[in-house]
User: Fold these one by one.
Assistant:
Number 1:
Amino acid sequence: MALITSSAQEASSSNYSSSRFSYHVFLSFRGEETRKTFTDHLYTALTNAGFRTFRDDDELPRGEDIIKPELERAIQQSKSSVIVFSKDYASSGWCLDQLVMILQRKKTSSNHVVLPVFYDIDPSHVRKQTGSVGKAFAKHQKKQSPEKLNRWREALAQVADLAGMVLQNEADGHEAKFIKKIVKVIEDKLCRVPLSVTPYLVGIQYQVENINLWVQDGSSDVGIWGICGIGGIGKTTIARVVYNSNFARFEGSSFIENVREISEQPNGLVRIQKQLLADILSGRKVKIQSVSEGILKIKDVIGSKKVLVVLDDIDRMGQLDAVQSMRDCFCPGSKIIITTRHAGLLEARRVDKVQMVEFLNDVHSLELFSWHCFRQDHPIEGYMELSERVVNHCGGLPLALQTLASSLLGKSLDVWQSALKKLKAISNSEVLSKLRISYDSLQDDHDQNLFLHIACFFIGKEKNVIVKILDGCDFYTIVGIQNLIDRCLVFCDGYNKMRMHQMIRDMGREIVRLESKYPEKRSRLWHHRDSFNVLREKNGSKRIEGLVLNMHMYLEDNPSRNSDEVVLETNAFTSMRKLRLLEFCDVQLNGSYEEFPKGLRWLCWAEFPLDSLPSDFLLEYLVVLEMPSSNLRQVWKGMKNQLPSLKILDLSRSIYLTEVSEFSLVPNLEKLILEHCPSLVEIHESIGNLESLVYLTLKDCKTISKLPESFSKLKSLETVVISGCSNLKEFPVQMSKMESLKVLEIDEVPIN
């Protein structure tokens, strides 16, 4: 089976199960004090660890006439009891009656495990009935018989002498670590080893419940469920919780962790197969010499037992194919759960269900961060605003929230503020190393470079435009983007715009930043300070493929600089012979444009300062030219050189633009965007020669009064938007015969 891997397996088939017990743990606690805090998290941790845990507020309806027999039955049918002693535990006769029953159960069955947990109380107060316990008994004396009081006192003294756990003595008083230790003690005492799961699980319950319903549906089919998402989003955590909740229902079970990592090691596949067999065969080791031999032995074992198998972090088609090829060999009712970062694997193969793990919303993000940073469900006083900034930076990614919370735990406000400034420049390395696995697993440097271009320059841009630009840079963009989508590195939103989680973006940009400590020696410059310094110092190198400079943002970060002092020169580009992608906003350049980079494929220059394109612009390879909000009045005035490769021209919101003439300079134009140009008077007749034009928008060009007659010659034109052209009164006579026209938007156009 060319797949099944395992690291040090946390869950073996020695997992405890017994039909004699309804519960693994009976949880006794003072509800008013800890039900919604410590006990709730302890209950969640025990449940997530796979222990069937009883607590009265979940299991029993209120009513004195039925509680006592039901409660006693629950204690009798539990393998162990955990008693959470809090300051007011002894003030509840209800709790003390539970304690008496628990100790009676222990007396009649030596196998019953009792673990006292002293949450915020000294064990000596329980043993000697002093402190808050003594005060509670003073009140009980007025209402209870001496016999009952004696039973309670004896029970308290007896339980205090048992080996227990004290919060202040364990894990430096940290509740999360304390809870982990309690779960570990129960695991050891019950002789079972479930998978460890963080005690603070926030925002995943709905996703867990969906899979649990599927696992427990009683079907005789052999089912496969895929859990998919980027690194650090919680795939493995969800799979562990589901596994812990269900493995006891099956005759055999195995959680195979880190399939990708182990399979790449020498003899890794055989190690995986051995682990799977050992798990299902209750720890019995099986000798395997080769992968093919392992397949035969696995088929023999899985055909006779209903099993639950989790394969964590599959990343290759062959691994999933191995599972599919053995599907018919599994015993009916078996369930297989797969986690992967590679959505394309699940789409390409027969998987019953695919669940994309969702990012946490703002509320759940803040709660998860708070539990890991403050040990409560909200920030402590004075840290709310800073916590919200960290949470916003993490974008709902659980790994980032937990990692940053741990790094800020117990730190002062000034450390927090400094850490946030650092995060803006350099993201947390632990998070990025986890996310980088998806980048490193891309099949070649083609897809890796494509990803880096998108991460640095194209987030939020239309996919179709990106394809034009990067195809012009000799990428195979469509298949490359699909590969990135399959790896959950990018996605397209409902408007067909390319999106990327901000932590993934940061990971890509950090890869570029680490190319060199000198910005001029990196392949891409997206940070405005770095771009400005390189252009000012004129020390750019041939390594630079793309550059972004927004002067508004640069001046915001450098308020001491005057905008009049930041005029740059065209000869700053002399050494950037590989520059293909350039994005400017409000940048002033002095000098001859013959020195401007000639190999550009994409030039986006918002707020272009000149009234026409320079006559010495040499942009033979330019594919996309975007100059929104420019000062242009006449686009091509004085220009003689063609732009033969130009496919997209965007001059939107250029409020001074009066005409666009000489379309012969852009013979292969496919998309022309002239919307929100209120001074535009006319469209030149030469537009009729654009045989490749498929899209034209003149939306809200309120001055234009007619379209040229040559307009009807546009045989490829599919979409025309003239909505808001309130002065447009004349249309070409032959326009109705334009066979390719599919979309015509004419809202607010006076049609006679």
Number 2:
Amino acid sequence: MLVARPRPPRGPLQPALPASPGKCLWRFPGALKAKAEESLRILVGTEGDSLPLTEINAGETEASEQWDYVLVADRRTQGNPRQACQQRRFLEELRTKGFHCKRIEDRDKVFFGVRADSRIFDLYRTLLMEPEGPAARVQPARPAPIPATTRIRIVNFVLNSKTAAGDTLEDLVKNGVFETRFALHKGEDNLKKKWAQWRNMVREQPIDDIRDYFGEKVALYFAWLGWYTYMLVPAAVAGLVIFLSGFSLFNASQISKEICEADDILLCPRGDHGRKYQRLSDTCVFAKLTHLFDNEGTVVFAIFMALWATVFLEIWKRQRARVVLHWDLYGWDEDQEEMALELINCPDYKLRPHQHSYLRSTAILTLCLLMICLMIGMAHVLVVYRVLAAALFNSALLFQEEQVNKRVALKLCDFEKPRTFSERESKFTVKFFTLQFFAHFSSLVYIAFILGRINGHPGKSVRLAGLWRLEECHLSGCMMDLFLQMAIIMGLKQTLSNCMEYLGPWLAHKCRLIRVKLGHASASEDPELRDWRRNYLLNPVNTFSLFDEFMEMMIQYGFTTIFVAAFPLAPLLALFSNLVEIRLDAIKMVRLQRRLVPRKAKDIGTWLQVLETIGVLAVIANGMVIAFTSEFIPRVVYKYHYGPCRKGADPAVDCLTGYINHSLSVFHTKDFQDPIRIEGPENVTECRYRDYRNAQDYNLSEQFWVLLAIRLVFLILFEHVALCIKLIAAWFVPDVPQSVKNKVLEDKYRTLREKIRSSCKSTDV
């Protein structure tokens, strides 16, 4: 058993720590309770002595020691006096804080196992004034053991705090003092069997086991992802029904019949190259396909998805409340947790107050708007390459843009000067998601609401810089362009992303193992060294590992809801993708990556506000798609205002008869600037194009303005109805179940009763 002993004399590589105002002396202010003072006195010693830094070479192991964290250094750093001095100083400072280190040398690496004395964890429990789990409440005289997740979290916090010299562990890694650091995988076999296997794809996730191993933050991510996947089932079924119902109109639609029989209608040439007339009947197949997703059921499905998004979030809030109550975290305070860790690391820690600056906020808002404008401009360039090969090319560009967005968001967060790590993470989440949202959705917004609407008309097309003609919509309409883009994103791109997300870490891990086998094996047969080396060879993780998983799913959730009116199959493809994503992430975290540092949490944080924002944007975007991109409004207006049924329905006549001729404008070929270059039948006097313009002067017709007014009215009504439905659903479904509220109420009542009994006993004595 290791006991406190006097500090050994310093050698040449053990310089005295420089005295500085930032150096933490292990003295507590008198305001802390006597219990905390006693815990600290036992931990530090009455004369300032602390627990020893243990340096043990390979082969000297102690079974009782639990090494939760490992630092790795290159043996060549031992030959660099400056780096060796920094390394020794860092380890010496850990010793003064009550940490033990175990040194094991490999042939080319030096491993340092790090653990904190158990009395540091007693101090953690004392400062928070609440036990770790229900067992400690039943037996207060014998507190429950500190979970491994808590041990790792405290060790990681102290290791990543600033040293007396002003450096952090991250700075030391960048300077080559240490190569890397990681938390050890220990006892993960249970998760490997029950969770991290492809054959468990349809089995329920062991959320409690995930929490016990990876901490609450990771467990809540998988709990949310599992609930999201479960709730996709009704949305996928509804979308599939809407899509399949379009097959009933595949051959029976009056519009499709008119298009397929329009052999005598010629469409005006498109583009500057290969200019020729095309028969309207050539678009017959695409016209039938368009009615699979652009029909009357689209409006109903869009409203259904607005309701679905609200119900999904409200029931998730209820699920979260049950889970955190089960974990005994319902009343947990994140600020109190971070202050406790700061005090454990440095008893002289001074509270950092909240601060706000209107000047900084204005500067950040301006920079964010400039970045958004830049990304919208880039989307206009990328949208030209919407075919398959370009979709793959865009993925690489999006990855590069993601790295730029991440750096910009981090710089903006640092400029804003957040108080704590959790506050910094929250601010970073908002900024980074905003930039990523525009990066991923700008092309879809361009296709849905801008493409083909500012091109002018045949004979007078709008050109960039007077040279390049703008791209036009598909012959069957812009809805087909939007459908194809969504199909590529949700089908092909999502599948490729999942494959690369698994194959990348798997191949990287295999390559590291092969390099070790082809190189040289360690001379030591120490089982602990083998375990540390096994963890070292796993793929590294960082602060953004779990954040990136959340971001990936938020972007997918956006694609699933925001433009679902143009692609009803989005929930179905998202469901299939998520079933793979859950096991893929599980295998990555348990088998292929180093252990994520556990973090405590009682909700998914700012991501909940992101989901609510996406829900509102989905209502607005789907309303605009139905109003301005689809043919729903023009069909309804023609049916009741211009068509044969305007004076009453006639069973013998379809109300949409003549719609195609009504929706196509006439252009006289004599008005082409260079009609000789146009290929096609001779003696063509007129051609047709999709727009509402007069045949005489090509100005916008009366029908255009009538349609525009009705589109705006529909958009306002749709958004108000959908948002009202969302508000009613949010009110109707309570965020917290009554059983959870009653349980919390009973706990408070029981605590007060116990205090009364204790007070009465003290009075009697």
Number 3:
Amino acid sequence: MFSEARNDLTSMRICTNYSRNLAVVMSLNKSMHPRNRYKDKPPDFAYLASKYPEFQEHVHTNLSGRAVVNFKEPEAVRALTCTLLKEDFGLSIEIPLERLIPTVPLRLNYIHWVEDLIDGQKQPRRGIDIGTGASCIYPLLGASMNGWFFLATEVDDICFDYATRNVEQNHLSDLVKVVKVPQKTLLMDALKEETEIVYDFCMCNPPFFANQLEAKGVNSRNARRPPPSSVNTGGVTEIMAEGGELEFVKRIIHDSLQLKKRLRWYSCMLGKKCSLAPLKEELRKQGVPKVTHTEFCQGRTMRWALAWSFYDDVIVPSPPSKKRKLDRARKPLSFTLPHVAVKELQVKARALGCTGRHPLEAITTLVEKTLTELRVLHKRVPCREQEQSLLLTAMENTWIHGRQKRREQMRQLRELPRAHQSAAAAATTPSLAQNKHQDATQEPADQQVTDNNAPSVEGAEVTNTAGDVDQERLEKVAGDDVEMTPGCSTTGPMDATSETSSKRATSPGSAEHFVLKCLLNVLHEESDAVIEMNWVEGENKDLMNQLCTFLRNTLLKAVAKSGTE
């Protein structure tokens, strides 16, 4: 029976995580370009697998019965790209695994943004794709969708051969011209033989990384971010360049200052948001009159694009709406506790003395218990029926590295009896040298040992007769159900941002100095329960994300513990 309970719990966690991830991806898809065909209708993997055998072998069914693809496998990513291009655009392409495998929704976002730049997607237009890659995806999409003419440049021999073959087998050679150019060639050399043609735009996926370490995520990725959800493929010339994408785009800017009105719009896609500001500043310094930018959002992947023009009559699309960003930032964090978990938590709450019959009351009681242990100030606030609400105020971040802090405190407390024993031994058996040189003004030896060698634990009473007190404190720190007065610290000296205990607030409403304020709602959703956290104010919204994760893990551990007892 216990093994069945554990299996049910495991399945519950997987389904909950999948539902949460799916909800995140779907919400991000809403930020795609309005004309992107995948914005409101993500690819149906099950349908595509039934139609394309070469794709079917990379589709798996998860525990919830949904068809999924492992984006860590290059073969699976390639199969998906080729299948989407065939199904939705009638394009047949080949891509080697050792070269960059593009994702279709992202490339489609870029194409639609270029349509906005040049004001019209169906008119004959001329564009340049700098570094077209083996797939030649931008020219193929632009030519097949809009009838655009493309000059596609490539420096890599393998990419050039595949791009040429992909254009020919889709019968688009009259619209797309693939040219092999020397290394480090951008726009100047590619256009030196075409002095009369004015192009409407250029597109470019610059190499994102400056070296191998950056390509592997070393020193280029925030340590708090999770690892990428998809595999990183691509040849050296496709993913790395001297100085990374920042210097690569600056070279395109340098070429544009010489070419100027040979192109109506210059554009590049960026892999790092931090590259956007310095490039915009470079364009400002160079006196470029028309500059705009945007963001491409698809699934969990974000990209940014920059465009500039020397023409006065171009229509400049507005940058992303700040209101949309604020609305997205205000969306609450939430997680779901399925019915089986809610029942186990009710039992757990009753064992702790909760008398409320409604499941939300039981979950709220357990959340309050955890918040008390974390020394997070909280109070219940008025709310709707079938709902519980708590106003939370955290004076400091107590939910990260709490286990390490407790272990260190336990280690220090264990050392206290040893320190007392050493002090007593030193007092009763002083060395011969100490007996000869000790005078009447010298302090007792046991006091010296206490001051110099005993570990310092704030609030700990260090005396030779404090063994019982130390043991009591050790048991209190080690216990799972320690109740602490909100605002009191037992983890060591307060940092510079903490107030003394006499000045700390005793309720969320009266707190003046805090790191986080948020509203926590416990909601009823059919037979499940949902915990929702809404940002109010504080130092960093990541703190609320961390606290939300801590509460979720704590409740799930309580369910797991009940299932094994």
